Amino acid sequence: MMSNYKAVIIGGSAGSFQVITRIISSLPTNYSLPVFLCLHRLKHIRSGFVEALSIKSSLPVIEPDDKDSIKSGVVYLAPANYHMYIELGNRFSLSTEEPVNHSRPSIDLSFMSAAYNYKRKLVGIILSGANKDGAVGLKKVKENGGLTIVQDPAECQVPTMPNACLQIMNVDHKYSTTEIVRFLNKIG
Amino acid sequence: MIHDIGIVDTKKIIAAINDTYNIDFSGYALTSFKRRILKVINENNYSSVADFINRVETEPKLFEKFLSEGLVDTTEMFRDPSFWRDLRDVYLPELIKVHSNIKVLIPGISSADDVYSLMILLKESNLQDKVKVLATSLSQLRLDDLDGKMSYDVRKMENSEGNYKRFTEDTEISNYYTTESNKVIMDSTLLKGVETKKHNFVQDDPIPGHHLILYRNRMIYLNATTQDRVCQTLFDSLVVGGIFCIGSKENIDGSPISRKLTCLNPLEKIYKKRNV
């Protein structure tokens, strides 16, 4: 079906691994949007994460190199110890700028750059996580006209991240994992 | 507090800097460049983009400060310890075997981290006398860091400590610094013999004759076209058989120089200049 959206960006911590795998395993192989994942993870472990996600995913899961082009139907995971930006011209760029909210990759920075580039064509989703990183970024998605979703805190292992969003903004939807899955399948 | 800068304003800033100082930032990656400008504007309480432009144009000292603060404080020491181990155990020994004395280029530094990492590695490998190091930067103030005392926030040191432990278990990185209140002060005698040069690899000519170039996580701040140009200049700064190192998530596969390089290590992104 035709969708109003051009990209999905999801933020969470390594603790939301199971939710993430449920989400990406539910997407069809011909999914029509790129999906960006910005997850807090150990800085010094460069490999393993993308492989673990790939096993569960019907879509290719990639840690982009700097300046890689963005393609639909691919899940992009922010690499360890880099910030991941979405640039104009449909490319990624990476950065080793100082951590934000003690985090590199920072969810705020990825969300802000995606919001700037996709404006109202973006869906931003914040999952379970133990840090307020992501709240300012999700707010930027909303300010740029995009759609904002948080995982229902009642369902979260660690609800700090979605709660931080709910405190500073009017989030469009508070969804369970099942509802997130249903929604993503409807739009792409 | 300014929260965002639009493209039009960013272009105005780039044009003003280029007109006044002949330094062209138009080839820089937009998101990180905008972030750096915002940081400088907000940390110095400039009231607007126009205010910032006006001050930069009329106050060269302030522009030097912008160059110093605005360049990304890129990294920690021994980022990617496996890279530094491979350099120590494989690639430096191979170079030394062939050349006996080698020249290393560290272009476009924005902090002294890589320089300190290399100098510690050389000291521990007893190679200080055989290796000459040249560090370049756009910013004279950043180069001055290499002459005086380099100090770190203690918190920032934690990353470097963790990296160093993965680099070697033989010694402690604390051998190389002293602590004063919340600051870590690096042992500046490590940098004895390191040469510095104010130089802009985006615009200036190559500096030929180098056997090893460490250009890790610098290209990410440039757009794709400018990356290709800088890579060519660096390639021309390298002797045949010389080693070229970039960051683990940087990519030169599409660049014209990739045909003239052999990839020695795809994980750590280590390349060798071929004899063609």
Give the gist of this structure.
The complex is a heterodimer of chains A (188) and B (276). In chain A, 31% of the residues lie in helices and 22% in strands.
Oligomer: heterodimer
Bulk shape of chain A: globular
Unreliable parts of chain A: none
What Rg of chain A is obtained from the alpha carbons, in whole angstroms?
A: 15 Å
Number of beta strands of chain A: 9
Structural class of chain A: alpha/beta
What is the C-alpha radius of gyration of chain B, as a whole number of Å? 19 Å
Mean pLDDT of chain B: 91
Report, as a whole number of angstroms, the end-to-end distance of chain B.
Answer: 54 Å
Tell me about the biggest sheet of chain A? 7 strands, parallel
Portion of residues in helices of chain A? 25-40%
Tally the helices of chain A. Answer: 6
**Helix-strand sequence of chain A:** EHEHEEEEHEHEHEH
- What is the H/E order of chain B? HHHHHEHEHEHEEEEHEEE
Proportion of residues in β-strands of chain A: 15-25%
The residue ranges of chain B in which pLDDT falls below 50 over 5 or more consecutive positions are: none
General shape of chain B: globular
Structural class of chain B: alpha/beta
Largest inter-chain contact set: A-B, 26 and 29 residues
Q: What is the strand tally of chain B? A: 10
